[in-house]
């Protein structure tokens, strides 16, 4: 029996609650729709995710802590929603994250120290939130963020 591993429903006019991907889906994108509600804790069962894109919807509530603990996740895009609370503080040392888009929400607090565990991170976008912090010195240790090969201009 074959199972769905790639689901892209982006750029439609989908309304209603956010669907929950199965535990074997690797690519899940429902960006640029009109989905509402919070990100359910049932997303924690989708630990095979490599790319998760829920951007440009009308999602509310906090970011579930489990999303930043998935071992294979490369891209987490939650930008341009109405998410609240703080950035999760449990980025593991074994994470594979390369891209984090949290911009355009209502996230508060400071950048969590556990972000230093994201040694493969190339893109970190937390703009247009309510984050109050000093520039964290440890952020400079993330070499992929400050590698000149990734700077355009």
UniProtKB/TrEMBL annotation:
Coiled coil: none annotated. Pfam families: LRR_1 (PF00560), LRR_4 (PF12799). It is a single-pass type I membrane protein. Its main location: membrane. It is found in: Membrane. Keywords: Glycoprotein, Leucine-rich repeat, Membrane, Receptor, Repeat, Signal, Transmembrane, Transmembrane helix. GO terms for cellular component: membrane. This is Receptor-like protein 9DC3. It comes from Senna tora. The lineage of its organism: Eukaryota, Viridiplantae, Streptophyta, Embryophyta, Tracheophyta.
């Amino acid at each position: 029996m074959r199972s769905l591993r790639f689901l892209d429903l982006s750029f439609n006019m989908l309304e209603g609650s956010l669907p929950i991907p199965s535990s074997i889906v690797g690519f899940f994108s429902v960006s640029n729709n009109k989905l509402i509600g919070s990100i359910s804790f049932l997303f924690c069962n989708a630990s095979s995710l490599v790319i998760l894109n829920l951007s440009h919807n009308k999602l509310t509530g906090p970011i579930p802590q489990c999303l930043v603990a998935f071992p294979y996740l490369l891209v987490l895009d939650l930008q341009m929603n109405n998410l609240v609370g703080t950035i999760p503080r449990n980025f593991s040392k074994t994470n594979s994250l390369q891209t984090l888009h949290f911009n355009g929400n209502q996230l508060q607090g400071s950048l969590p120290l556990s972000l230093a565990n994201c040694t493969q991170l190339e893109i970190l976008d937390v703009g247009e939130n309510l984050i109050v912090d000093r520039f964290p010195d440890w952020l400079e240790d993330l070499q992929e963020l400050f590698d000149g090969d990734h700077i355009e201009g």
